[in-house]
Amino acid sequence: MRDRSRRFPSRLGLMIALLGLTSLSLQAQTIKLPPPQTDGGIPLMQALKARRSSRAFLSKPLPDQTLSNLLWAAFGVNRPDGRRTAPSAHNWQEIDIYVARADGLYLYLPKEHALQLVLKEDVRGLTGVQEFVREAPVNLIYVADFDRMKGATEEDKQFYSAADTGFIAQNVYLFCASEGLATVVRGTIDRPKLAAKMGLRPAQRITLAQTVGFPKE
Question: Would residue 23 count as lying in a domain?
Fold first, then answer.
């Protein structure tokens, strides 16, 4: 009769090794962003004066520091209690920001100030119908998670998630005005097709998309 006890340590060791590989894989799929630079920019009134929509972008990638500053300005954590740079009804914080780049689709993690890989595939062309979305370096996709909006009616979920998305999009506009970047917020999206590609749950709804990049002279 075999002594099965001798096989147990090897199985346990294999399980531990697999768990370790899984952990390393998850870490490899998360990009830690540089700390945001919060002491720069132009005066608010000048940023408001410069704020505009642009639809001509260079394909040049955004530097990591610029992307870090952009995402923090959009909806990053700006207080020790975890509250954010944009208002959120009832502090639901129901809006997630997905970042579509040439090297893949990422989810912005505000608490960690990091990007988590969702798809290692260029999905920029699915984020809108305009030609420029395929070449611009960054397309932000705003997704509302209705499961976080506890106690809200269906009408309230639609209303407040739309309003909260607008606050975030305006933060992006003002950041881009301050940094000399081009941006435009967009609502014409094949939402079912993009949501399927992103693997969203039924309670997750795409609200808007916003393109960001260097302006084409």
Answer: no
Four-residue CA torsion sign, 36, 128, 144, 49:
positive
Number of domains in the chain: 1
CATH of the domain at 185: 3.40.109.10
* Distances 126 to 154, 163, 189, 196, 198 between C-alpha atoms, Å: 27, 24, 8, 11, 10
In sign, the C-alpha dihedral spanning 126, 132, 136, 142 is negative
The pTM of this model reads 0.87
The phi, psi pair for 205, rounded to 5°, reads -125, 130
Q: What is the pLDDT of residues 86-114, one digit of tens each?
A: 999 999 999 999 999 999 999 999 999 99
- Amino acid letter at 31? I
The domain in which residue 143 lies consists of 31-213
